[in-house]
UniProtKB/TrEMBL annotation, chains A, B:
This is PLP-dependent aminotransferase family protein. GO terms for molecular function: transaminase activity. Residues 17-85 form the HTH gntR-type domain. InterPro entries: Aminotransferase_I/II_large, HTH_trans_reg/aminotransferase, PyrdxlP-dep_Trfase, PyrdxlP-dep_Trfase_major, Tscrpt_reg_HTH_GntR, WH-like_DNA-bd_sf, WH_DNA-bd_sf. The keyword Transcription applies. Coiled coil: none annotated. In the C-terminal section; belongs to the class-I pyridoxal-phosphate-dependent aminotransferase family.
Length: 488, 488
């Protein structure tokens, strides 16, 4: 069997990973692609090291590692060979891509893909003035402690928790942290059978909607309101009934539906906080009319102007409130970890549904989050975010006042954004496109409105922009809104 | 402000984490619970170290760490104090658990919770003879390399990938590995727009069903077949049409439905492999009758008796096959990572649906898997599992022959289980209960059958049992099946 020449190996400039990892990858890929056959002799470690310009020990370590995972065998002084039992390349050619005979969008009625989305470029972090909502700010995140917790959760001790199929259960440690430490801060005393972990708040809302809605049922949605909830209602086949919010959030009069969705802590997107009297009235209406309330308690941690009010769920004596919370907003969005709180009968149905849909959130992430909570890192992080947001909000309020822009809703507790109104004739989608070309990202408001809503609203978030960039960004928005700017 | 006495601290026997972490947790929990108020003086490091019986440096390190996350402030020689800006305890009492006024099971029609499940105890790993299916065997898993890949994915360099909201996208690195390295082994040449990552194979099937089915539509299900698929069909409101499988898998004649679900590589649970002629006939029938095929290619990696046949999807010229695959079976079940392959029009709908349902699988897990694949660890792991399963299967086949038990389906390619038939009068659910008391776990077959199927089938898996335990376990099953055993 011929020897494999050193020329079969080259380091790709800019490749990630250590040199040892890169050598390992070249060997395994060569074997799996069928280029290096079983029995073939590898280049000597001295020869390959010279060819690649790396130290001989690096090559030797990579080779030893490949022996231990059965890609190579070592024949002592004769060198290294591709193992006779190495993973094999497939023995049949790959097929050509098939034709597309079926109109899948027609099949689903475009039920999922025809949703109006808040337009956000994928490379938002390359823009100098990203007034963008819901992304992590890496300068605030506690990367080191998260890494420590993840490492601990990757240890031998947690191995079972990490790798088992939990079937329908949750990580008992995380459940315990949630029930003992997080929910009491919202005034909620829940037992473990009243809690279900989900893959983020979006997944919590989806599960609630799938369990509570369907064709022939009606769901009240706030208008303007969280666009994903309207889309989720439509996906279940239920009818969405938009109700206009006022300065205190969702009004209680004339609510007609099987399920009422609301964001009492910070109305999305106006930031209004529903006062206690209205909350009590809403619960009384639910009792009287028999509807279920889904409370999305998003951003409750970001109350830095006044202490946060207890959740609507904490006032719920009739077992009519389904509460959705999230760690993804306050830790980082890519975490995908949230939860539902509700009566045991509801949670049992939701748990079965989650089991069919995705089994359970990955064990490793649940355990990491449990450690991050248990060691107090979560609270420290939230505290740091609140302090940063408070500063940014102040800078932003000043810049908005200086530039004479109009705030339509800002909330009394904090949050991470301003809800803004431009002049009546302004189309903020067109404005957003012009600003994007100028390096500024804003969120046009149209996606928040049901049907043909006004087009002159927009949202400015301060969660992902550095404070020293805020003034210039707001100035650019003001310039773009100045009379005649669109035609310049 | 009074000092906090050392008696407020005690080490819990058996607590996890380092001493430093335990001290940190005691302090943060005291502060968050409102027991330690801002301004209160902490015990001296010497005093607390003496009280707890730990070294003084451990206490000092814990205190410094708490200063850096703003729980404590250091006043030089005067000691440490609870920070004035420490995270605060809530100012309202937690509510009592509410009553349960609504019949949620009635509301959902018990659509999700009334599914017949394969009965498996949560503590299956405490049984000496677990012939249980679908759990990880920690002795085979490559824990160290998985940990290395996870660590790399937790590094600063990957921070953005780890923490961003991907919106509807997948990790480009993992997508690339899948398209270039995994799918070609199944004979599938797919472009990136034909692939969607999911939260495990279960989630892939759920997404396919939600996109393709609904009230008024019909889905062919294999009988016996994968119970979760029947449950998923029912949850969409579609009608499930069971079709009896034969020794070659799903027969092609008389299939009547909008969607046909099949497991051609290893029929679940009989392990039959569908021959190529029948696959071609199935695709022709799909073309003629206009149905869509959902192919669950479960366990394709575990072909150790003969080389694996290409996937049904690889023969699909008409764009009628939706292919579901998984990493959770071959890496570990708690991973929750799978994928769908289909025509771009289908993947676009499925992607929007996944966006509404859960946004995307967690970024960190996607990136870790991409590294695990790219460095060849995945193939090495699969190779190791195949070797282990080959040995176990042989031991098990011998034990079954020795004890005279009847195999109803074993497959010609490998897999991880035998499909078994007991005498006509045996109820395997009753048998499983008796065996459980004897330390043996088997899976009764009833859950695999639609409606009132036979009760004398059962499944014996060898993926989680050590080879040296197999003979005794099988002998115990034989004893339990012996005439008169039930009444002993």
């Amino acid at each position: 069997m011929a020897a494999i020449p050193v020329e079969a190996f080259y380091l790709t400039p800019g490749a990630t990973g250590s040199l040892q990892q890169q050598i390992r990858a070249m060997v395994t890929q060569g074997i799996l692609a069928g280029r290096f056959r079983p029995g073939a002799r590898m280049p000597s470690s001295r020869g390959l090291a010279g060819h690649l310009g790396v130290s001989r020990i690096t090559v030797t370590l990579a080779y030893s590692d490949l022996v231990s995972s059965d890609y190579l065998t070592s024949a002592g002084r004769s060198g290294y060979f591709v193992s006779g039992t190495a993973p094999l390349a497939p023995e049949f050619p790959a097929s050509a891509p098939p034709a597309e005979a079926i109109d899948f969008k027609g099949l689903t009625g475009g039920r999922f893909s025809s949703v109006v989305r808040v337009e956000r470029p994928d490379d938002w972090d390359r823009y100098p003035w990203p007034f963008i909502y819901g992304q992590a700010d890496p300068t605030l995140f506690d990367h080191q402690n998260w890494r420590q917790c993840a490492l601990r959760a990757l240890g031998k001790r947690d191995f079972a928790a990490l790798t088992s199929d939990y079937y329908e259960r949750d990580d008992p440690l995380l459940l315990q942290e949630l029930v003992r430490s997080i929910l009491p801060r919202r005034g909620i005393a829940a037992r473990e059978e009243e809690v279900l972990l989900t893959l983020g708040a979006q997944n919590a809302l989806w599960i609630a909607a799938m369990a509570l809605l369907g064709p022939g049922r009606r769901a009240v949605v706030e208008n303007p309101g969280y666009p994903a909830w309207r889309a989720i209602v439509a996906a279940t086949g239920a009818e969405a009934v938009p109700v206009d919010v006022d300065a205190l959030g969702l009004p209680v009069e004339g609510l007609a539906g099987d399920v009422v969705f609301t964001t009492p802590s910070h109305q999305c997107p106006t930031n209004a906080t529903m006062p206690v009297e209205r909350r009590v009235a809403l619960l009384e209406a639910a009792e009287r009319q028999g509807f279920v309330i889904v409370e999305d308690d998003y951003e409750f941690e970001m109350s830095f102007l006044k202490p946060v009010a207890p959740a609507l769920k904490s006032l719920d004596r009739g077992g009519r409130v389904i509460y959705a919370g999230s760690f993804s907003k306050s830790v980082f969005p890519g975490l995908r970890l949230g939860y539902l709180v509700g009566p045991p009968g509801f949670i049992a149905e939701a748990r079965s549904l989650r089991g069919l849909m995705l089994k359970h959130p990955p064990g490793h992430i649940q355990r990491t989050m449990a450690y991050f909570l248990g060691l107090g890192h979560y609270d420290a992080l939230v505290n740091r975010m609140k302090n940063a947001y408070r500063r940014r909000r102040q800078v932003m309020a000043e810049a908005i006042a200086t530039e004479g822009l109009e705030v339509a809703g800002q909330g009394g507790f904090g949050g991470s954004s301003f809800w803004m109104r431009a002049g009546a004739g302004v189309d903020t989608e067109e404005l957003a496109l012009r600003l994007r070309a100028d390096g500024v990202l804003i969120e046009p408001g149209r996606a928040f409105f049901a049907g043909a809503g006004p087009r002159n609203y927009y949202r400015l978030a301060y969660s992902s922009i550095a404070p020293q960039r805020i003034a210039e960004g707001v100035a650019r928005i003001a310039r773009a809104l100045a009379p005649g700017a669109a035609r310049r």
